[in-house]
Structures are given as structure tokens and as C-alpha cells.
Amino acid sequence: DILVNGQLCDCDVVVNCQVGDPVPLEVKLTNWSKHSVGPFALTMMPYQDYQNGVHNYDLQDAITFVGSNTFYIDMVKPTKDSVYFGSLLFLYTGDFYLNIKFHEDNCSRELPLSWLCLPSVHIRATEPV
């Protein structure tokens, strides 16, 4: 589950926020399997989509994280969840997206490292009223 500014997000929702106001983020990973999973690294990467196949990830002048954009998850037990909190601060108006990835980092497995990517979250930063 992904909440941005207190609003549950899916691929069809655009979350509106104001430039200069911290936007709270909450990502909850729930383990519905019968086995413990982890360790993982959770990474949140903002970008702009220019609608021509180009994604701009070089946004250090437009967006900043309050805290870290990467969190480490040791282990999530069956039927339990793990919740991570952060905040974004938008410095300019525009349409932005948030790419959220879980990277499995378990060296005891024989399979290659894998990524679990959630649908991108669409955030529209507007001028304060």
C-alpha cells in the first residue's frame, strides 16, 4: 500500500500537493506468503515523464526528500507488514512521478537478485493558494 499526503494511491490517482509543503509518504509492505521474506532495500526515486519516452531523474533542484529515499528491511514474517515513512518537498510546480522499488538482497539464494516494482505514483505540485 502506498499513501501520499494521506491519500491511498493506485495507478489511476493523481495526488495534488502544494509547492513548499512537505508531502508525507507511507509505504507498507505486507507479506501474504507462508514464509518470511527479506532482506530488502526499498528505494523511492522521483522523476518527470516528458511523454516522449524520456524520464528525467535529475530533479535535485525541483524535489528533495526529507530524510532518506532508501530504507532497509531486514525480515518480514508471514501475515505481518512493515511500514516506512518519509516526506517529499516540491520546490517547483509540475507533474512528477514516484518510482518505488523493492530490491531483494539475499545472498543465501542461488537465484539472481530481483526487483519488485510498484506502479508509479503521480503527484501534481501546484502553487500555494
Automatic annotation (TrEMBL):
Domain named Trs120/TRAPPC9 fourth Ig-like: residues: 16-125
GO cellular component terms listed in the entry, alphabetical order: trans-Golgi network
UniProt superkingdom: Eukaryota
Protein name from the UniProt record: TPPC9 protein
